[in-house]
Design a protein that fits this description.
The structure holds two protein chains of two kinds. In chain A, about 0% of the residues lie in helices and about 50% in strands. By secondary structure, chain A is an all-beta fold. Chain B has strands at about 5, 10-15, 20-25, 30-35, 45-50, 50-55, 60-65, 70-75, 85-90, 95, 100-105. Classes of the chains: A mainly beta, B mainly beta. The interface between A and B is medium-sized, with 25 and 25 residues.
């Protein structure tokens, strides 16, 4: 099993450009999450999907949209990238939202110029 | 949201030493997890521990939910233990991470 995979690993954007970060898990988990990690800080939840067909805002959702494409895949879209969105983005999954541990992907390092 | 505070922020140990990392949270939580982020950035879950004590090899964790804190114990530390240790608390729909304890184990 690959666990949680993310693409791309690195990305450089110019201000105003759009892009989609892809995440997939092969552990048959119900819940999936997107976090961002800024230097010297812990992770902050952007959006999560408790189960297929549902998505909800986390702590810092502004400037992002998500799609739970199917049970395996959860994508994060930046419609108009800003320098403040320069960060490392992590996707995670768990069996259920509140009563299980989360498993993380390797991260996507995004720089917005 | 709740506040999650970790201490100490930085820790340097000689290989073989023991250490205790602390995580305080400001409100009741549904669950509490500990993660290790290695120097390459990968996040590995260590413990899912909403209450009580768990052990896994040289690592153990205790959460006292009524007093709103959790402890991570590392015994006989090794250089591979280096990295940042995060605790994360779940309340309702949200997950909150602390800012981490950066551990360096020197040979």
């Amino acid at each position: 099993n690959a666990g949680v995979t993310q693409t791309p690993k690195f990305q450089v954007l110019k201000t105003g450009q759009s892009m989609t970060l892809q995440c997939a898990q092969d552990m048959n988990h119900n819940s999936m999450y997107w976090y961002r990690q800024d230097p010297g800080m812990g992770l902050r939840l952007i959006y999560y999907s408790a189960s297929e067909g549902t998505t909800d805002k986390g702590e810092v959702p502004n400037g992002y949209n998500v799609s739970r494409l199917n049970k395996r895949e959860f994508s994060l879209r930046l419609e108009s990238a800003a320098p403040s969105q320069t960060s490392v983005y992590f996707c995670a999954s768990s069996v259920f939202r509140t009563v299980d541990t989360q498993y993380f992907g390797p991260g996507t390092r995004l720089t917005v110029l | 949201g709740i506040q999650v505070e970790q201490s100490p922020p930085d820790l340097i140990l000689q290989e073989g030493a023991n250490s205790t990392l602390r995580c305080n949270f400001s409100d009741s939580v549904n669950n509490l997890q500990w993660f290790h982020q290695n120097p390459w950035g990968q996040l590995i879950n260590l413990f899912y521990i909403p209450s009580g004590t768990k052990q896994n090899g040289r690592l153990s964790a205790t959460t006292v939910a009524t007093e709103r804190y959790s402890l991570l114990y590392i015994s006989s530390s090794q250089t591979t233990d280096s990295g940042v240790y995060f605790c994360a608390a779940n309340t309702g729909n949200q997950f909150y991470f602390g800012t981490g304890t950066s551990l360096t184990v020197i040979p």
